[in-house]
Specification:
Layout lengths: L6 E2 L8 H4 L13 E6 L8 E4 L4 E5 L17 E2 L8 E2 L4 E5 L4 E5 L9 E4 L5 E4 L9 E4 L8 E3 L17 E2 L1 E2 L8 E2 L1 H5 L12 E4 L5 E5 L2 E6 L4 E5 L16 E4 L13 E5 L6 H5 L10 E6 L8 E4 L8 E4 L5 E4 L2 E4 L6 E4 L4 E3 L9 E3 L11 E5 L5 E5 L19 E5 L13 E4 L3 E4 L4 E7 L11 E6 L2 E3 L2 E3 L2 E6 L2 E6 L2 E7 L10 E9 L2 E2 L3 E5 L1
Parallel strand pairs: 34-44
Antiparallel strand pairs: 1-14, 2-32, 3-4, 3-37, 4-7, 5-6, 7-8, 9-10, 10-11, 11-12, 13-15, 16-17, 17-18, 18-19, 20-21, 21-22, 22-23, 24-25, 25-28, 26-27, 28-29, 30-31, 31-32, 33-35, 35-41, 36-39, 36-42, 37-38, 40-41, 42-43, 42-44
Protein name: Galactose oxidase-like Early set domain-containing protein
Organism: Gossypium darwinii
Keywords: Signal
């Protein structure tokens, strides 16, 4: 099956009983991670976030919240007679953040992007789809350049799409329209919709290594051949059957793909957190049930796959899951009771949790140092090229609200510094000397990266090249997020603390879709700063 170079719009895409029961473990606490407050206010609440190839991050909020705290440049105003709050809009609802300068500027998004989707295309442009009200059929394009702003296509979608796949839209379509011009029904979306609650919005979609799509909604999943519109496989329901899609919002990742030269590459999905059955309706009455404290992990290419349950040290709903360059997973943001929705979550989870997928099942979780800023409904997170995780957003209110509520509309930006960025690991951290970037690398080719490591304890066997696909993050899901563990074919010491690391790129677009990646060299679990590469 050919590798997809378009965006699937649902983005915009019995073992032994003991093995099925959640595994419990002793809490482990980290001490070397840290937090940075980057901006007290960027003027908007960053409820959507995407890192671009120029180290800028695009963030945006809904436009019909009334005025933001950031004016449009040069006294500019937009006239929008369809806006439900203000017909003359003089404040920004989108910003472009320069990561390394720690500065931001206002952008002009012309229509309501609330609860929409997005993906980086192979050319590096951000395609962004859907939204609220009159904007539900919009397609927006942002090109990373010094003077670029949002461009909009009024009827770029066949049907209205709010909350990614679209409320009540049990179908999918492709953009750009030179692929397939019409929408196609997907009964799985209606089968997973709970009456009066839904619990299947923002489905988790991952490109499998065979070119099919793994689609998870509510509490179950399918493997879907989108070319022929065929369900290839139905996976068993998660043990317990608890919902984990919006508004009972959990999160999910495709775990790092490794052993990429093997004839059969293993692919695993991890789904964590969410809300118990009945939580949404109870939260509407002001009763906040405890969030789920489970993760479910499944090998999606097995002939008879089964979910393996694990227990998190902290229950979490509306959390985010971010892949780190060294192959670990960060669980961040969210609450420990209630669900997603206006005023429907309580008890913020301030502490992060690190998940080490290759550890023994009873020693995978480690609690990290907490933030002091609650990140509730509409929070975001994104991995940056220097290994930090950018965190923003949180607005559990129908409008901007800064007084008289438990959780204020949050306009700040902060960064989480994982323990691998601690100064005590500086001598183990590789510095990529050459190349500084790779504008075009081919599939299944060997490349050499030269690094410097100023240590007398270099472990050549631990050196590994990894590639990360930056994700579009909103509503507790990082769309198109992917980490590839290339390992190393050969490491050669060349003197003066320099090492040449050879690695082979993935073999096809099914394993690694073409486009923009961050490439890291990892030594003893400590990643270098990434370089930008384009794979095609």
């Amino acid at each position: 099956m050919a590798a997809p170079s378009f965006m699937f719009s649902t983005l915009l895409l019995l073992q032994l009983l003991f093995g099925l029961l959640p595994h419990h473990r002793t809490l482990i606490f980290a001490a070397d991670d840290n937090w940075q407050l980057l901006q007290k206010s960027i003027g908007i609440s960053a409820i959507h976030m995407q890192l671009l190839k120029n180290d800028h991050v695009i963030m945006f909020h809904r436009t019909d919240f009334g005025p933001s705290n950031l004016s449009l440049p040069n006294g500019k105003c937009l006239n929008d007679p369809t806006d439900t709050v203000l017909q003359v809009i003089c404040t920004a609802h989108s910003v472009e953040y320069d990561v390394f300068a720690n500065k931001f500027l206002a952008l002009t998004v012309q229509t309501d992007v609330w609860c929409s989707s997005g993906a980086i295309m192979p050319d590096g442009n951000l395609f962004q789809t859907g939204g609220f009200n009159y904007s539900e059929r919009r397609v927006r394009v942002f090109s990373p350049c010094r003077t670029c702003n949002w461009n909009e296509i009024p009827n770029g979608l066949m049907v209205k799409r709010w909350y990614a796949s679209g409320r009540g839209q049990f179908n999918y379509e492709f953009i750009p329209k030179n692929i397939v011009a019409n929408k196609t029904n997907l009964p799985f979306l209606s089968e997973t919709s709970d009456k009066g609650i839904e619990n299947n919005l923002y489905p988790f979609v991952f490109l499998n290594i065979d070119g099919n799509l793994f689609i998870f909604a509510n509490n179950r999943a399918i493997l879907f051949d989108y070319v022929n519109n065929i369900v290839v496989k139905k996976y068993p329901m998660i043990f317990g059957g608890e919902p984990q899609s919006y508004p009972s919002t959990g999160s999910a990742v495709l775990l790092p793909l490794k052993n990429l030269k093997a004839a059969a590459i293993e692919a695993e999905v991890l789904v964590c957190g969410g809300a118990s059955k009945g939580s949404y309706l109870q939260s509407l009455k002001g009763i906040f049930m405890a969030a789920l404290d489970t993760c479910a992990r499944i090998k999606i290419i097995d002939l008879n796959p089964e979910w393996v349950m694990e227990t998190m040290p902290l229950a979490r709903v509306m959390g985010d899951m971010i892949l780190l360059p060294n192959g670990n997973v960060l669980l961040i943001n969210g609450a420990s009771s209630g669900t997603a929705g206006w005023e429907q979550g309580q008890d913020p989870v301030l502490s992060l949790v690190l998940y080490r997928p290759d550890n023994n099942i009873r020693s995978r979780f480690e609690v990290q140092n907490p933030t002091i800023i609650p990140r509730m409904y509409h929070s975001t997170a994104a991995l940056l090229r220097d290994g930090r995780v950018l965190v923003g957003g949180s607005n559990p209110h129908a409008f901007y609200n800064f007084i008289g509520v438990p959780f204020l509309t949050e306009l700040s930006l902060e960064a989480f510094l994982s323990a691998y960025l601690d100064a005590k690991f500086a001598n183990l951290r590789p510095t990529i000397i050459t190349p500084k970037s790779m504008s075009g690398i081919r599939y299944h080719k060997k490349y050499m990266i030269q690094v410097a490591i100023n240590s007398n304890k270099v472990d050549e066997s631990s050196m590994s090249v990894t590639m990360f696909a930056p994700a579009f993050n909103t509503h507790s899901f990082s769309m198109n997020q992917r980490l590839l563990i290339l390992g190393n074919d050969k490491v050669t010491e060349v003197g003066n603390s320099m090492y040449n690391v050879e690695a082979t790129t993935p073999r096809s677009g099914n394993v690694a879709p073409s486009g923009f990646y961050l490439l890291f060299v990892v030594h003893q679990g400590i990643p270098s700063q990434g370089i930008k590469v384009k794979l095609y």
